[in-house]
Amino acid sequence: MKEKAVTLGRFKSLVGVVAEPDGDTREPAVLLLNAGLIHRIGPNRVYVKLSRTLARQGFRVLRFDLSGIGDSLPRPDHMPVEQFTIDDVVQAMDYLSATYGSQRFVLMGHCAGAYHSFRTAAQDRRVSGVVMMNPDGGEAEWVEYDRKRKLARYYQNYYGKKTLLDPQRWKRFFIGQISYRNVIKNLLQNVLWSRISGFCFRLRQRVGKQPPTQADEKLFTVEAILRKLFELDTRVLLIYSEGATSLERVQNNMGKALKQLSAAGKLQLAIISGADHIFSPLASQADLLRGIERWMQNI
Amino acid sequence: MSDSLTPFFFGPIGKQLFGVYYAPPPELARDFGVLLCNPMGQEYVRAHRAMLQIALRLARLGFPVLRFDYFAQGDSTGEDEQGTLAQWQEDVRAAITELERRARVESVFVAGLRLGASLAAQVASGREDVEGLALWEPVTNGSDYLDELIAWHQDKLWYFLSGEDGDQSTWPTKISANSRISPIEILGFALHPSLTAEIQALDLLALLRKPASRLLVIESDAKPPVAALCNKLQQLGAAVDYRCIESFKIWTEDPDKGLVPQPIIQAIVDWFTAEGE
Lengths: 299, 277
What we know:
Chain A contains ten helices and eight strands. Chain A is an alpha/beta fold. By secondary structure, chain B is α/β, with parallel strands linked by helices.
């Protein structure tokens, strides 16, 4: 495996690294798209690990920064972000085609990168597969539900485990060196109320679920992507961290479609246990890499 | 003004480092290059945008600038657990040589953030070609630094992972005897035992020679260890410009916020510009 630093695109303003196999190269070529504003090494450098793992399997991999992210310069043509993200990816594929003769591509991305991947796939038929890692977001009520879940979990663990077992904290509690008001607020508001409102939200979603409106359809959610998948011949690996709110959301909203797409061989859903949103634990990174490596063997 | 940048790999096969060289506009080119030294691991991921901004602004003002990734960090060769402080010091030396070669300059300024500042100071104290040094929140005591990282690591996992679905057995609570033989993981990165031992032993107050004649030291809240470092540098004969500039800690912020600590970056750029006249 060897790596080469490149600049590419119409304005030569996109910065990337191509990882190449030592021996024969297999199709498709792989492109890794920025996880939000994190530069091309990816969260916890996982894109570097992924590039090298896949290159050792024979795939050519380009990890690069979209315009204005990481080392890539902003585009001089002031194209709107929704358009230039796709245009940048198309230019990156053009670069691989022109330089190495690549004809088919798999786009991979974490979080926002997942959306860029699929949005490009929906417009460019050279894309034969997409790997979406923890595509997040969604409607404001789901974002708020996610925030409360994490808050409740944090304070529950903080008071339930960390503090209970710490004699120093008990000492400070008894001699009045802590804010009783804060403790009560955290337990009642951030744990109890967050749990109750979370329960009510889930109940509401199950009982009063509304069919998507036309406005919802325009939102680029995982649900919209899955609907689009029915029309395309693109294979998708959808990866979520276990317990992710976005997974709960997509299962709640599209459970039936998930099963149909899986049965049709278009979609594979993988759930990584013991992982946060950015796959911080090393064990979860290893699981992520193994899952993608295995899926790539069949693409 | 258009920016001219060149990404490239340099160094020996097997230990190649990724760098980005920013060439200044020829009509503004100065006689000094500037090397930027990153923090490590998760701090680097989060500070990338800030370091990039320093590079772009300095290059526009006429400085040839080199940013680079240490071995086993960023895009450079090597896996996470292969990084060591000794190697990274060697990388800083190699990067200075590369910058001098590319920019055709004989001396450089160096700026570093967190552990990058410490590495820069250690390397510069053994050289004559470092004209000036900007230390942004330098790590003065490695043991305290590791404690800080571990506390942050635990806090993040308490918040995002623990309890319902997280295995806490592998989380470091302190640098134990066991971590001297097997890697520990901190904030998404593996640290080899030799690296943790090196960091634990890091003491910037033990410098024997001044790293440069002129230094800028920046922190966002006044801390006694940094004051002690400034005293030490002055005792060694350096002229120290200390600034306490209130700001968020960019190396801990969520990269998706897109934050850049503008006052600090401007202070660094202004200092180099004044010193590089």
